[in-house]
């Protein structure tokens, strides 16, 4: 599987090495989260993404979903498939696609429509489902709103997108039983000095991340994502100071092959 962490910051020259929002693209056709999905790449490439999995309802993970759905719309019988927990789908329908913030694309896509915009699918933590030959297992993590991480397995290898979380257990328990685990994308949001804020908002600091990594095999590479842009340099140097050989800062726009 080919996994790309999309960049979310742009300027007139080189890309600013900051992450403002979260989106991953897998094999060019599946996305996890839509924080920046609708702002990256040509609409023709966005239209190749047929499935979007949403981990939770926070704006840095759904901000460009309405833009993406519009960009990907081709006026055909096939349309974008969106997957989320009951809590995620409720937030999307009540707070985004509500005819105030954006048109109600659900009502505009009735069953049998010749040109639907999108279709919603409810997922349940612990219940795997299949998309394009990949088995996806949603696992609940520990965040301030209901949040699911995803374990993706194509039969040859597996990787995990944990999403936003404070200290958590279940996804590591499932990880131990996951065959051919080749990589983990794990959040680390605040520097160590802001641990109180991390605890309140259910995120991780580098020190808290180090505790989480004791629950993962040290042979599995872990890629740090979701560093708060304002404190990126501080978080990055605190991560480096941990001197954990399997811990890396995730790169933007450079695909990981698992
Ligand atoms: Zn969040
Ligand atoms: Zn977030």
Give a summary of the structure in a few sentences.
This protein is an alpha/beta fold.
List the defining traits of the structure above.
binds zinc ion, Metallo-beta-lactamase, Chain A, 258 residues, alpha/beta, seven-stranded mixed beta sheet, 23% strand, globular
| CATH class descriptor name | Alpha Beta
Low-confidence stretches: none
Strand content: 15-25%
Q: How many beta strands in the DSSP annotation?
A: 14
* Bound chemical compounds: zinc ion
Q: Mean pLDDT score, rounded? A: 96
CATH topology name: Metallo-beta-lactamase, Chain A
The best one-word shape is globular
Supply Rg: 18 Å
* Multimer state: single chain
| CATH architectural arrangement | 4-Layer Sandwich
Structural class: alpha/beta
**Strand ordering within the main sheet:** 6-5-4-3-2-1-14
Largest sheet: 7 strands, mixed
The secondary-structure element order is: EEEHEHHEHEEEEEHEHHEHEE
Q: Quick one: CATH superfamily?
A: Ribonuclease Z/Hydroxyacylglutathione hydrolase-like
Number of helices: 8
Explain this structure to me?
With 258 residues, the chain is of the alpha/beta class. It has one domain: Metallo-beta-lactamase, Chain A (4-Layer Sandwich), CATH 3.60.15. It has helices spanning 43-46, 59-62, 65-72, 86-96, 170-176, 195-201, 206-213, 232-242, and strands at residues 2-5, 24-26, 30-32, 51-53, 80-84, 118-122, 129-131, 134-140, 148-153, 158-161, 181-187, 222-225, 247-249, 256-257. The protein has a 7-stranded mixed sheet with strand order 6-5-4-3-2-1-14. Strands 7-8-9-10-11-12-13 form a 7-stranded mixed sheet. The chain is globular and about 55 Å long.
